[in-house]
Here is the input.
Amino acid sequence: MEAFETDVRSRCTPFKNGSNSELTDDAPPQEYCTTFADVQEAATRIRNIAHRTPVLTCSTMDEMVSSDCEKSVKLFFKVEAMQKTGSFKFRGALNAVKCLLSETEQEQNENAKNEINPLQVVTHSSGNHAQALALAAKLASTESILCNVHATIVMPRGAPEIKKRAVEGYGAEIILVENTNEAREEKADVVVAERGASFIHPSEDPRVIAGQGTVCLEMVEQCAQIMMIPNAADSTSNKKSAPLDIVVIPVGGGGLASGNIIALRGLLGDSVKIVLAEPQELNDAKRSFYGKSLVGHDPNNLLNSVADGLKTTLGPNTWPIVRDMADDVMTVSEAAILRATKLVWERLKVCIEPSAGVGVAVVMGEEFRQRYIVGNNDGNEVLKIGIVLCGGNVDVVKVAKMMVAVV
Here is the structure.
């Protein structure tokens, strides 16, 4: 698919010194850490290793969202729960590892080294990024002729055993530390210093962000095929033929959100509305967006959300992209998240995690209906809404018990 012709790349050059100030008409163009070209290159780089995940539809859920509205709604679900390791995180980890591997191989060729040392990568994570980097290192190693990749994952001792076993099963080395962010960061710094390892941040690394952006790069093309739109790139000048009118993306640390904002603006320009979704209990992105200044979680916030994959906050690389190019950030209650997750289990027959249910909950909510569906006069007979189902790593028994209380 061709890119939108407006110069999005000029808006998306490498980010420097993350400023939280507003842009003005006479201000220089904002620089970002990742470009649309980076996302396109990532798609080529991870092709044939990462899954091209399916886009599903559900007429029952379409009718539920458009009930009592003059406009019909068509929902498209991008199922990253079916990605390797069970989440979108594999895309970014793989892109980062392959970028580093390419640089290492080039250096070894130029220096004509006889002794080949493995590429060392490290991160700290107790969740999806840990598994993603472990598998990315393993699979990238099998492709490389010159160099193996050794992944070290710093994990808290309290991490679930099932996740530890998964990381070990993918061949990574685990270093256990105390259950604090400080302990994890300190140990990762030690590994970087002692082994000359490259640290791969789960959401702030530009290569990770570019890899995550391939989610919507695929989804736009897939939705165009479903809607039988011959060339979706032409739809930027004709909104009636756009493959998607609104895209809803969960937001935590912002790697998924910012990468796909870059992809969507590159493909569809301003013809698409981009809505980010987060739990009310983890509302740092909404407070940052509407306050026009980056904030973290309130110190008194216990971070008690079933959508535990969204606890991370925006950072200096992801925040400027969200601030400048997203259209909205909406929040939903814990009960709404559980109901939406259950609905996807029942209707789409896909076992998503509650973090993926957050975007569905937003679209099913009355606030979204009133803001984007009721009274929508854009001239389209059907409002086309894409929802990213970010992952499916869930304790089914535990979450099912929680669902009983809200149904």
In short: The radius of gyration is 21 Å.
